[in-house]
Amino acid sequence: MLLASDFAISNAELFQADEEQRYPTNRQGHRSDLTSDPLGPKSGGARSNQEVSAQVGESATQIKRYIRLTELLPTLLELVDRGMLGFRAAVEVSYLNSTAQKILLCIMDELHAKAPNFNQAQQMKQLYLDGALDEAAIRDILSSSKAAKLPQLKLPAERIASFFPSDVTIEQMEAAIVEALRAYCQESKMES
Hints:
single chain, mainly alpha, 0% strand
């Protein structure tokens, strides 16, 4: 089985080799036409990532994602290989600098937390890009995963309406149900 890290590294190497073949450097200095161009490549041919994607059978976007994984710390890349950090989440985390990635790993260890999911990784990336990602923000994001994963309970109003007067709102029904459950739990504790 080919690991994500192996695929990322091989695609990055393939992409780099293609770029070097297309744009050999010379003694005159650096190329000035290698900037990203939304209208197409400046070299007149297909983009390197498109050629690589055709060679390996993946989309150009997916190739870019694999190459992005090479920006991860080895420990995070290993989590991707072991299936403990999702691929798309790993791509988002790869936008954090190495210091932020190290802090993430330390907080994961400290909290005994799982690797961030895609939404958490997106939040961290956005905070990082905004210059607002710090230890407290990472801790809050990783801690919020437990609350966010609780399933929603939906009860049709028709099913419980007979227990309430007709003028009671849905919010009042919810409050009464929560209070009844609280009282029930207290009573159960006393009986035990």
